[in-house]
Specification:
single chain; 165 residues; alpha+beta; disordered N terminus; ribonucleoprotein; Ribosomal_uL18_bac-type; rRNA binding; ribosomal protein
Length: 165
Amino acid sequence: MWCNSTSITLSFLQTTTQHSQLSNGVGRNSVQIVPLRRLAVEAAATTRREDRTARHIRIRKKVEGTPERPRLCVFRSNKHIYAQVIDDTKMHTLASASTMQKPISEEFDYSSGPTIDVAKRVGEAIAKACLEKGIEKVAFDRGGYPYHGRIEALADAAREHGLQF
């Protein structure tokens, strides 16, 4: 269930026991429920995009691209998938591949968006581009996305075609 923010009011109840006398002199216990206090809780909901961005920031604190081992960064949208190999010390993109490039885009039908087969083809293309430039080892940055589906397919295809990570 997705909502922006929700305000919830809770009432805490306290039970008290009272002793009352019946007309025949026999006592009886009764339980009375009395409101004790009210507590308002503000719950802020986040979107899936905000959650992914937060994961990506946490990952970027740990994964860094160097000249010897650049970072393979993956971005996934509803229509395309992109992969870049980045040297973070110089802030240079060393190689890139995406479904926007002609050889890949002409090969597949995008009526339903990128599929696992398309992601595999992008993984092959990024591996080939890296090996041409002498890059064999990379640090994989999944961009906050779960390692599943298209992200996993891209990574596996890049590994199969010679990249080590």
